């Protein structure tokens, strides 16, 4: 069976089940919260006892008819399974919960194969693997206003996230590229969670404070791709330099009967204690763009950055309904980071079309600015070699999407993206002279997402 056809297999199975079960059966299937229903009552019984089992599948086809390093189409998919245990119900351990999460990732990514861009066009793109992701225990204290989570964690589960950015397909609207490009192994984020501790407290109804410390290199140092160095998610590294992140969130008018419109403002900062390569100079102070350079970058001890996230609902109603938008800004030093400035913004509308109250439409733009040190290195390369190599500046991703809710457990999502200056205006590897940048790319996609 062709790869591109695989994402339609779940839809075909559902269609066959619907057709064979009659009108009443089809209505019942589409009204279920999950594809597999209540398992003859066993799901509800297990949850009453404190055990929650579940899963989801995302399958998609993406193609770039224009631009990139070559034109093509891909299929990729991700099956996920999770287990939640309420220890208070199972063991009588008040305020304690356990969570485990694993992925089976298949297919191949469009960004890695056909675009060579920074802002991955899919938030599920990763190397084929079957891997453990989250594995943690959480304890709540002081009337559940304080919690401590310890185990294998992912920072993008809780930090730098926006409520209104979650519906977009491009990966930068989850874990922003300024962190993915600059942190070792991309940071503690999909698909590489890592050991850590997170503490969260809520001094008031509006204010919450979160802080976490992680092992700073989920896959460790070494040759090749980090995802291949930890192909199963079981490295459980504890010896690398630490990565720490803190975030304060202030949420107002969250109650449905509040006078104003819901708004959340988050401010955060992070610090990594490792060593980072200079983007411009080698260890002797010579430009890395000089052919006489040793090619061994100077290093800097430590790295840090700041970010701001604003979520705003513009139409009064239940949180998440109607029109809502987000803005995120982030920055860090340019001498030791490829990306020094990041910004994104977007809006979603739930229920835009008549009779489609659960559908979500959205438009978003993300921009990653190449740091001044890396740009200076490119200019030096041009000056020393006499070749008109591109000087990297930044990459822009524009996405328009529509999430069509076929059933409570099934959504179909057509998606269009346009990538400006892939790789930050990097040289196209198809041309040995290195004087032509990668062309802007148009990406068309279709995603199917199901919960089991």
CATH superfamily, called what?
Answer: Carbohydrate-selective porin OprB
Helix/strand order: HHEEHEHEEHEEHEEEEEEHEEHE
Per DSSP, the total helix count is 8
Proportion of beta-strand residues:
35-45%
Question: In CATH terms, what is the fold-level topology?
Answer: Porin
Radius of gyration: 23 Å
Taking all residues together, what is the mean pLDDT?
92
Number of strands: 16
Low-confidence stretches: 1-27
Overall 3D shape: globular
Question: By helix and strand content, what is the structural category?
Answer: mainly beta
Total number of domains: 1
Helix content: 10-25%
CATH architecture: Beta Barrel
Largest sheet: 16 strands, antiparallel, barrel
- Return the CATH class: Mainly Beta
Taking the alpha carbons of the first and last residues, their distance comes to 24 Å
Give, in spatial order, the strands making up the sheet with the most strands: 1-2-3-4-5-6-7-8-9-10-11-12-13-14-15-16
């Amino acid at each position: 069976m062709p790869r591109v056809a695989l994402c339609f297999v779940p839809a075909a199975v559902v269609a066959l089940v619907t057709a064979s079960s009659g009108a009443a059966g089809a209505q019942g299937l589409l009204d279920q919260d999950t594809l597999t229903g209540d398992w003859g009552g066993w799901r509800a019984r297990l949850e009453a006892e404190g055990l929650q089992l579940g899963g989801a599948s995302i399958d998609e086809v993406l193609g770039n008819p224009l631009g990139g390093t070559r034109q093509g189409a891909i299929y990729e998919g991700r099956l996920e399974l999770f287990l939640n245990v309420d220890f208070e119900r199972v063991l009588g351990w008040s305020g304690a919960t356990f969570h485990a999460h694993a992925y089976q990732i298949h297919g191949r990514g469009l960004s890695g194969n056909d675009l060579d861009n920074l802002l991955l066009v899919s938030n599920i793109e990763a190397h084929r693997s079957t891997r453990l992701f989250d594995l943690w225990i959480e304890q709540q204290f002081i009337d559940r206003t304080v919690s401590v989570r310890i185990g294998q964690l992912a920072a993008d589960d809780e930090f730098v996230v926006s409520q209104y950015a979650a519906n977009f397909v491009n990966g930068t609207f989850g874990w922003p590229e300024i962190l993915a490009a600059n942190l070792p192994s991309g940071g503690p984020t999909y698909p590489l969670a890592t050991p850590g501790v997170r503490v969260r407290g809520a001094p008031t109804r509006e204010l919450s404070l979160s802080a976490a410390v992680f092992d700073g290199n989920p896959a460790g140092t070494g040759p090749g791709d980090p995802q291949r160095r930890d192909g199963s998610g079981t490295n459980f590294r504890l010896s690398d330099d630490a990565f720490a992140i803190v975030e304060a969130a202030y949420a107002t008018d969250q109650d449905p009967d509040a006078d104003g419109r819901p708004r959340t403002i988050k401010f955060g900062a992070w610090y990594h204690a490792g060593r980072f390569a200079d983007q411009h100079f080698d260890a002797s102070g010579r430009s890395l763009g000089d052919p006489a350079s040793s090619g061994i970058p100077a290093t800097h001890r430590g790295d840090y950055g700041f970010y701001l996230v604003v979520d705003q609902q513009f139409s009064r109603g239940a949180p998440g309904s109607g029109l809502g938008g987000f803005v995120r800004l982030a920055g860090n030093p340019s001498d030791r980071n490829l990306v020094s400035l990041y910004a994104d913004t977007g809006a979603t509308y739930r229920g835009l079309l008549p009779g489609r109250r659960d559908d979500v439409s959205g438009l978003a733009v993300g921009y990653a600015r190449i740091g001044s040190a890396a740009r200076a290195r490119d200019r030096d390369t041009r000056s020393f070699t006499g070749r008109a190599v591109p000087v990297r500046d930044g990459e822009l991703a524009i996405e328009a999407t529509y999430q069509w809710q076929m059933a409570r457990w099934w959504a179909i999502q057509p998606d269009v993206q346009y990538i400006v200056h892939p790789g930050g205006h990097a040289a196209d590897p198809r041309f040995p002279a290195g004087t032509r940048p990668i062309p802007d790319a148009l990406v068309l996609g279709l995603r199917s997402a199901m919960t089991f």
